[in-house]
Amino acid sequence: MSGFAFPAPRSSDPADFGRVGVLLGGTSSEREVSLDSGRNVLEALQARGVNAFAIDGIPALSRALVAGEVDRVFNILHGHNGGGEDGIVQGLLEAFGVPYTGSDVLGSALSMDKIRTKQVWLSVGLPTPKYRKVTAADVHAQAAELGLPVVVKPANEGSSVGISRVFDDAGLDEAVALATRYDGQLLMEQMVVGDELTVGILGDVALPSIRIVPKGQWYDYDAKYKADDTQYLCPGLDGADEEAIRHLALAAFRAAGCRGWGRVDVMRDRSTGRLFLLEVNTAPGMTSHSLVPKAAGQAGIGFEELVWRVLEQTLADPSQENRHA
């Protein structure tokens, strides 16, 4: 697919990276996905000659940092509460002065909180479904205000964990009971009926969109990570619509304070064609079912090169050094 201008690589020498810890696993609800992603990233880096090794979880990372055993970190630790997408790992690495992939403390913490991400987007005029912060006590009243159907989910989880789609008042209590198994606030938002799309971000480039077509009615955890019959159409849209979703995704990524790489999830209303932002993933999956590698491949970037380009963002940018020389 033409039309993608990627900058020249910052390095072609794997020795420039030093000792690279691939941070994976952890204790979040997304541990198994992170282990799978991490194995793929580790193999890709080692295949390119990088001195890379696995680090499972934050305590192991802390010990490696104290011992001075790691020069930079490829963070593929998904989720929060023992994951690496909520700003805690980023703060730890900042304190030790160790470069790492992906968004910084602010971008990571903000994007992990779907409610506050929505507040930022709305403040700069970016479209996202109407929502409420809910508790079990007022869930029925808030659903009535929004209008059914609605989606109920934990505000701080990913990978479709704890999500329910609710079409009648009778289903609300069960949806809340599921979502409250996870820490943090609950989010209820208007359900957008239409196409589910996602846009990967690599540096300053929005990759081709992907339209996700599960065999079942919903793109749930099984459809994401286990099923082999989910269809991924890339690019997901055509012409001006494709340009619009890529522009919107990049604007949303930047507004949330994100950097490096990530993925922005979007819904397209089937009746109006309007786009609505759902969330940003700051350490997206890198499994055989994952979406950023699919989009990068469509743009001419293979998996090993994708992993290299994510890691090399931890190196100084020669163009910036020349600018300030």
TrEMBL record:
Pathway: Glycan biosynthesis; Cell wall biogenesis; peptidoglycan biosynthesis. Binds 2 magnesium or manganese ions per subunit. Its EC number is 6.3.2.4. Its cofactor is Mg(2+); Mn(2+). Mg(2+) 2 binds at residues 279, 281. Cell wall formation. This is D-alanine--D-alanine ligase. The lineage of its organism: Bacteria, Pseudomonadati, Pseudomonadota, Gammaproteobacteria, Lysobacterales. The gene is ddl.
